[in-house]
Amino acid sequence: MATSGTGSPRPAFPNEGGSAGAAASRPAASTQWRVLIVDDSADDAELARIELHGAGIAAECRRADSEASLLATLLEFAPQLVLSDLNMPGFSGEHAFAIVRERAPSARFVLLTGALEEDAALPSVDAVLLKHELHALPGLVRELLGC
Fold first, then answer.
1. Is residue 100 within 8 Å of residue 126, measured between CB atoms?
2. CB–CB of 71/43 below 8 Å?
3. How far apart (Å, rounded) are the C-alpha atoms in residues 35 and 32?
4. Cα separation of 62 and 42, whole Å?
């Protein structure tokens, strides 16, 4: 188990050396979606995972926090949905989108960001969601994946 910034336990992402957490104790759903979360913040990635699982969306979530970990994860994991932070140190959501389009072209792609400039030029992703509006993530995912 990993801990949050408050020291309370939280399930780790599988590729971070932890167990699948709460999803392992839940009965198998008819469809389990493969979701890759690209974010330098483990806490932000965990919040997205909690939103999905809390809304009853069966998802195997993996996390990548850099270009190198994104490339490595895509070698072993074929996501159906990618949720990517827009601004990361030394890496960007735009670059993550280009890599995913090349390596997993059928994956749906959502940019997550803490703030968005009104005139920001963004790539043609499936959606953009502000991180303070994560409550809307399950509905967006259901729309994009048809679940």
1. no
2. no
3. 9
4. 11
Contact 82, 109 (CB under 8 A): yes
Burial (CB count <10 Å: 0-12, 13-18, 19+), residue 40:
middle
pTM: 0.78
pLDDT digits (tens, 9 = 90+) for 30-83: 579 999 999 999 999 999 999 999 999 999 999 999 999 999 999 999 999 999
Q: Where are the domains of the chain?
A: 32-145
Q: Looking at the structure, give the CATH architecture of the domain made up of residues 32-145.
A: 3-Layer(aba) Sandwich (3.40)
**Cβ pair 85, 113 in contact under 8 A:** yes
Show contacts of 44-47: CB within 8 Å, 24+ apart: 44/85, 44/112, 44/131, 45/13, 46/2, 46/4, 46/10, 46/13, 47/131, 47/134
DSSP helix/strand/coil, 84: strand
Phi-psi region of 124 (alpha: psi -120 to 50; beta: other; left: phi over 0): beta
